[in-house]
Every structure is written in structure tokens, then in C-alpha cells.
Design the sequence.
């Protein structure tokens, strides 16, 4: 039975892999991952890891890995369709063979959202919308800005929006699916937004995918109310105003805390301002922004909540290639208030003078420790050394160590010795992890049999696997990769199959994540692919590194026939032997 991509995408969004696995394995949180005893082999020390960010799992002990479907297949001994049906049942979704085309539902919701946005915009200019207009005028928004962002008003009462859309032909089921209305405990439905200023959420293709609503008074529920996830919207994977920011000539985006800050900055001429959608900044949003910006300025509120959000965002952005700087708003609680008080030119000076992420983190360490006292200075330096050990650029480390030691009148050599010890511990841990990870791939195929292809050229095998990981993390690079590397240049049969499958799907405009591939790969093949992504997934493989892997693979298959070698001159023979030796290292 063929299952539509739209159905699988929705099933993926509705499946929480941590919750799923927790039904079979006792998991403990370790930073951004979860660990436990592997359910697929006997062990006393946990080596089974769940990765919520890409909805996958991997066991470093037995090599089992994959997505939610693979886990269900393995743990319950099911085939692919049975596993999909089990997950659909858990998610409260109709079984795939009992469901209408999901694409049609999405199209209806998008059309409905567009009509809802028009309705909200029209209601802003009615007598009932007077208070909403007053609120927006009070926030100093111009008519042009209101029109540009499609701001509107959801009428009071509980049925105006739903009744209007029903008159346009939308069903109650469609209204519920799109989050326009909610079902009450008594079984009726009511408008999700009422008596609120409305902010349409628009995706990169110009579709209205959701709404945010702000109350105007002190009463009436939460200050902000946001659409929940729907078949066309997932708040953790979209950004407010990115549809405008992506068109800017500037490659420096400004990340704000909320809708009004972003709108105020756009009105003041800062057309790259964006904001999360009623939730904390997520790794998916960081990846999305990195596709359009080279630098990201964090511009959160100056209160403790804003500073906490800044620290969290810095951690998330550490794995992205964007330059990150921190803007400190002084003399105002947020960017909107600052611009009203001091003007756009002064705000531009703040942007230009924004601190690096390291400067901000060091300042935070100072604020937690009294460096005027010996005890506080020691505590600060201990945290500072850990921060430097986590900083990959040695030039940055040297500059900041020199600066801090000069300011605190501390012997630089003493700090350097502490840093070297910390880096040694860090490298030792990384080497042990790399050795453990790579052992999975060295000489076995997914079924546990010797993989002689990999044994003959481990360097090329590793390059191929890293290029596969790079391709899955950077699908926009598929054309560049496929024009440089042929399928037959991958040294193992499985890597050739993976490369053909992944590149073929990407070239056809189809997704190539684990969830999408699980229907086309055996569970043992998913083990290997999950392992490849686990080993390489935590690394930010750069374009330059990918080029190195491409060159290694391009050298595959260049060996000469014996009769050709016999005809070589001495110098040519020495060069040829040297190239073979280099390729096998």
C-alpha cells in the first residue's frame, strides 16, 4: 500500500520519539539527549541514546538505530506498514488506507487561513475594531506597516470567525483541523481567537499558515495566544517575518523576542528582524535562519527572562556556522521601547556595537562571581577555562585569555596550563568516543558479516559516509555533489545504495530524512544510516570538508592495471605508489 508523503510528514510531526521509546525503555536525560539500557541486546552500562532533535535513536553497543518506525518494527517484530499503522493509532490519526489525501486537507486549510486573514483585516476597520486600531496606533504603527503585516482584529464573542468561514463553504472539521475553532467540553465549537489583535504568520512561500493574537486589556486570558500545530504549521520550524527578512540585501538577521519588536524594527528600517512563534527558540529555527543569514544579532529583552533566553539561544546556535553577536538594550525594556525613546539611528549604533557571544558569556560569568575577592576570582577563572575549552578557535582563546588575565592581574601561564589540561581531557574523551563510534563501521556490514569492501579502503569508506551525512544535512547541495561524485566511487554496496537513494529523492524534490527513508530501507540498513548520522550528526561538516571527501572519492577507481604499471618510468611509478598509500591511510 502506497502512503502519501503528506501523511508521513504529519505522522512524523505527531510522533514524539522520546515518549514512544519511554514506553519500553527507562530513559534519563543527558543534556539534549536521552540514554538508557538498550532493549535490543543485554547490557549493564547504558549505550542506547535517543536524539529528540532529529527523532532518531542509536545504540553504541550493538549498532541498532533508526527512526520511530524502525524502533517499532524492531521492538514489536512488525513489518513497515504494520509499524506505520501502530504509530498512526498512537497519534490518533486515521489509518493510512482509511484517509483522504492529506494534500487536499492542507490546501483547504491554507485557503481557509487566507480567507480568515482577510476577515480579520476587514474587522480591524469596523466600529467593533476601534479598540484594536487604538492599540496599534498606541504602539506607533503606521497604516502602511499594518497593511504590510496584514494585522487584523478577531471580533468579540465566540462564533463570528467560524460563522463567517462556514458561509464561505468551510466545514467544521476543516475549521477544527486548522485551529480556527476549538471544541468545548460540552461538544460545541468556539472561535480560538476573539477580541484580540491578530498577527498572521506567513511562510516563505507567502502562505498564511497560522495566527498570533494579543489581548488589548489587562484581562481576557494570556497576553499572547498562538495557533497550535496543524497539518500546515509547526511553530518550532517557522519564524515570524522571515518571509520579509529573506528578501533583504543584508545577511545580518536580528532575532527579537516577540512579534511587536520585530514589526517595530521593520517599520524603523531594520528589515531583517525576525521572532519565534510563541515558543522558545529551537534548533530547527536556528537551522532555518542559517539558510538565509551569515550573522545573527540576538536582541532579547533586558530583563532576566530575556537574558536567560539569550544564553539558551547561544547554546543552540553553537552548532551553526553563523556569526552570533549580542545586542544589549540599555535605557529601555525592549527594542520597540528603545526606538520610540531614542530613534532608529541610536538603535543602529547598538546593532553595530553588539558584543560577540563570547564577550556576553564572559560578562555573565563576571556577574555570577565577585572577581574582587580571591574566592570569586578563582571561581570565575574555573568557569572561564571551561568556556575557553569549549571554544574551537585557538586565536580566539589566546586573545580572550590575554585580555582576562590582564584585567584580573593573573599570570597568563597559569591559566594556559589549566586550559591545556582541560583540552587534553576533552580530546581524550572525543578520541574514545570516535574510536567507539568508528568501530561500528570498520569491518562489518549491517548483518554483522565482514565488509571486505570497507576493509580495502577505510579512508574512502569514511569519506563516503561523511558525504552522505553532509548531503542529508545540506540537501540544497545535492546538485553540486552529484556532479562531482559517481555512485560507483562509494566503496561499499550499502553506501552506494544510500547515495543513490538519497540523492535521487533530493533531486526529485522529496525529503530524505530518516522517517522518509524508513519505508525504502531494511531495518539493518537503517542501523547503518542512523550510525552514520550519529557519528557525523554532531559535527558541523563544512563545505570545505565536503570537498575533501569528494576528492578522496574521486580518487577511487584510479588504480592502474598491472601491464600499465609495468610500463611506468621510475618517477611516475613512485608517484603512483605514493598516491595509493595516501588513499589507504
Sequence:
Amino acid at each position: 500500500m502506497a502512503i502519501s508523503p503528506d501523511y508521513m510528514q504529519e505522522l512524523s510531526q505527531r510522533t514524539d520519539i522520546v515518549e514512544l521509546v519511554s514506553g519500553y525503555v527507562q530513559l534519563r536525560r543527558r543534556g539534549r539527549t536521552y540514554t538508557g539500557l538498550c532493549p535490543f541486546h543485554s547490557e549493564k552500562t547504558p549505550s542506547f541514546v535517543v536524539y529528540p532533535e532529529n527523532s532518531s535513536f542509536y545504540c553504541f553497543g550493538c549498532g541498532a538505530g533508526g527512526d520511530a518506525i524502525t524502533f517499532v518494527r524492531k521492538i514489536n517484530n512488525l513489518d513497515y506498514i504494520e509499524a506505520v499503522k501502530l504509530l498512526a493509532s498512537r497519534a490518533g490519526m486515521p489509518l493510512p488506507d482509511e484517509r483522504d489525501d492529506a494534500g487536499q486537507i492542507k490546501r483547504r486549510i491554507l485557503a481557509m487561513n487566507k480567507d480568515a486573514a482577510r476577515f480579520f483585516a476587514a474587522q480591524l476597520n469596523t466600529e467593533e475594531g476601534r479598540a484594536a486600531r487604538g492599540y496599534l496606533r498606541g504602539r506607533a504603527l503606521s497604516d502602511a506597516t499594518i497593511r504590510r503585516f496584514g494585522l487584523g482584529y478577531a471580533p468579540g464573542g465566540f462564533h463570528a470567525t467560524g460563522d463567517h468561514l462556514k458561509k464561505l463553504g468551510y466545514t467544521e472539521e476543516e475549521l477544527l483541523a486548522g485551529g480556527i475553532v476549538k471544541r468545548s467540553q460540552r461538544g460545541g465549537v468556539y472561535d480560538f481567537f476573539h477580541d484580540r489583535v491578530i498577527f498572521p504568520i506567513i511562510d516563505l512561500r507567502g502562505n498564511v499558515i497560522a495566527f498570533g493574537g494579543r489581548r488589548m486589556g489587562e484581562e481576557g486570558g494570556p497576553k499572547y495566544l498562538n495557533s497550535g500545530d496543524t497539518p500546515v504549521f509547526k511553530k518550532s520550524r517557522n519564524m515570524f517575518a522571515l518571509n520579509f527578512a529573506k528578501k533583504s540585501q543584508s545577511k545580518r538577521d536580528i532575532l527579537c523576542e516577540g512579534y511587536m519588536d520585530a514589526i517595530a524594527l521593520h517599520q524603523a528600517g531594520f528589515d531583517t528582524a525576525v521572532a519565534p512563534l510563541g515558543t522558545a527558540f529551537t534548533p530547527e529555527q536556528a537551522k532555518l535562519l542559517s539558510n538565509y543569514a551569515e550573522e545573527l544579532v540576538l536582541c532579547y529583552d533586558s530583563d532576566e527572562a530575556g537574558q536567560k533566553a539569550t544564553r539558551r539561544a547561544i547554546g543552540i546556535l553553537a552548532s551553526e556556522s553563523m556569526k552570533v553577536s549580542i545586542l544589549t538594550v540599555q535605557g529601555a525594556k525592549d527594542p520597540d521601547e528603545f526606538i520610540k525613546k531614542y530613534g532608529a539611528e541610536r538603535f543602529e549604533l547598538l546593532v553595530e556595537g553588539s558584543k560577540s557571544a563570547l564577550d556576553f558569556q564572559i560578562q555573565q560569568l563576571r556577574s555570577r562571581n565577585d572577581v574582587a575577592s580571591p574566592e570569586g576570582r578563582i571561581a570565575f577563572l574555573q568557569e572561564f577555562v571551561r568556556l575557553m575549552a569549549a571554544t574551537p578557535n585557538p586565536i580566539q582563546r589566546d586573545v580572550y585569555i590575554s585580555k582576562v588575565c590582564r584585567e584580573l592581574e593573573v599570570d597568563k601561564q597559569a591559566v594556559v596550563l589549566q586550559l591545556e589540561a582541560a583540552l587534553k581531557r576533552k580530546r581524550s574523551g572525543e578520541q574514545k568516543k570516535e574510536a567507539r563510534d568508528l568501530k561500528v563501521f570498520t569491518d562489518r556490514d549491517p548483518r554483522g558479516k565482514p565488509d571486505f569492501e570497507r576493509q580495502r579502503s577505510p579512508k574512502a569508506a569514511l569519506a563516503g559516509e561523511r558525504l552522505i551525512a553532509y548531503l542529508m544535512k545540506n540537501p540544497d547541495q545535492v546538485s553540486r555533489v552529484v556532479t562531482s561524485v559517481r555512485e560507483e566511487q562509494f566503496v561499499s554496496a550499502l553506501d552506494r545504495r544510500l547515495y543513490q537513494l538519497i540523492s535521487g529523492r533530493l533531486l526529485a524534490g522529496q525529503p530524505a530524512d530518516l522517517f522518509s527513508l524508513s519505508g525504502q530501507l531494511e531495518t539493518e540498513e537503517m542501523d547503518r544510516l542512523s550510525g552514520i548520522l550519529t557519528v557525523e550528526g554532531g559535527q558541523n561538516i563544512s563545505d570545505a570538508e565536503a570537498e575533501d571527501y569528494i576528492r578522496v572519492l574521486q580518487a577511487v577507481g584510479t588504480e592502474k592495471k598491472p601491464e600499465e604499471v609495468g610500463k611506468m618510468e621510475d618517477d611516475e611509478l613512485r608517484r603512483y605508489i605514493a598516491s595509493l598509500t595516501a588513499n589507504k591511510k
